[in-house]
Write a structure and sequence with these properties.
Blueprint (H helix, E strand, L loop, with lengths): L1 H25 L2 H7 L7 H10 L2
Length: 54
């Protein structure tokens, strides 16, 4: 059972990572940079840190 839970967790994190990347990339650049302090070009790094804590 532990292996199945590990796989489910990995799949859920992967889905969250991809959803987060899409959402950040979809932000208007001005809004992301000026209001939120995010750069859409760094979406993958931001999503990785948010989901996996790296």
């Amino acid at each position: 059972m532990a292996a199945i839970e590990t796989i489910r967790d990995a799949i859920a994190k992967r889905a969250l990572y991809h959803r987060t990347v899409r959402e950040i990339e979809a932000l208007p650049t001005e809004l992301a940079i000026e209001d939120m302090g995010l750069n859409p070009y760094d979406a993958k790094a931001i999503a990785r840190a948010a989901v996996y804590g790296q």
